[in-house]
Every structure is written in structure tokens, then in C-alpha cells.
Amino acid sequence: MLMLDCNSESGSFSNLFEAGTGVNAPADAFGQSPAHLAACGGEAFFLLWQLQTGANMNQQDCLGEAPIHKAAKVGSLECLALLVAGDAKIDLCNNSGQTAADLALAYGFLECAKFLATIQHTQTMKLRGQSGYTQSDKCGLQRENPAAQKQEHEISGSASRKRRRSDDVIA
């Protein structure tokens, strides 16, 4: 596979077609797939084509970076949106322990970082809504599903009312 600079122009992608590179081609020395290269170049159209042909959007390269990390590093909101819509793992960490949102922030792409943080928050809220069990948030604090909290409050409230009634009878 050919290694392309992240700031390459879209004409360079024709080399991938000429070389006959597969959608999930065996990793080169850097472990980058065509989807990595498209995301790294901010080439949303090429990335969309890769995703539609079955590219693994969570494939990690030698740095532990998936296409979502590459798109975040170059500030391509369009590529990030495609990857998120394709169910890319937003919380996937690279070898340095950084998520795509961390990289977007580190590279100065605040809008991309906010977008990813909003998507992460939305996904977390959906997970909480699907179960009544407590879950840890990013800081390790225990949070409960609001429905479970309401149910618990109703149960404890009725128990305390029963106690009050029995106290009234005794007194």
C-alpha cells in the first residue's frame, strides 16, 4: 500500500486505485488502510465510498489510530460525521491513550472536539436509558437511570408513609 501525507491532495488517491488496493487491504508498514488515508486527507467523498464498500472504520494503525483519529487530527468535521454515522467507536483510544476528541482538542479543532463530545454524551445517555442499573461516568462517579431513581423514591416514600400510619395508631 502507498503511504500518503495527511495533507495530500485528492489526486493522490488515484494511486490507490491504480495499485488495486482493497478496501481493507493488509496493513502496510504503518498499518494504514485506504479509509485511514481518506480520513487523514479530509476526503469525505472517498471515505464515504470506502465505508459503503465495507471498510473497517475501527481498524487501528501502528499508532493505534483509527480513521476517526485521523479525521480529528486534520479537523475534518465532514469525515467525522461520516464515521460517527457509520458507528465508528468514538471512545477508541490510540497507543497514547487519546480519543479522537482529545486529538481534535490538542490540534486546535474545537468544533470537532465539541461535536465528538456531544455524540459521546448522547450515546452515554442512550445507554443509561436502556438499563436501570448504575453506571460510572467518565470520572468514575455512580449515576443511576432517572426512571430507576423515581421508582426507588416511590418505594421508599410508600414505606415511610406506612411507618407513619403505624406510629399514629400506636400513639
UniProtKB/TrEMBL annotation:
Entry-linked SMART domains: ANK
Alphabetical keyword list: ANK repeat, Repeat
ANK repeats: 63-95
PANTHER family to which the protein is assigned, alphabetical: ANK_REP_REGION DOMAIN-CONTAINING PROTEIN, ANKYRIN REPEAT DOMAIN-CONTAINING PROTEIN 37
Protein name: Ankyrin repeat domain 37
Keyword hit for Repeat: yes
Annotated Pfam families: Ank_2
Region (Disordered): 134-171
InterPro entries: Ank_Repeat/CDKN_Inhibitor (IPR050776), Ankyrin_rpt (IPR002110), Ankyrin_rpt-contain_sf (IPR036770)
GO cellular component, as recorded: cytoplasm
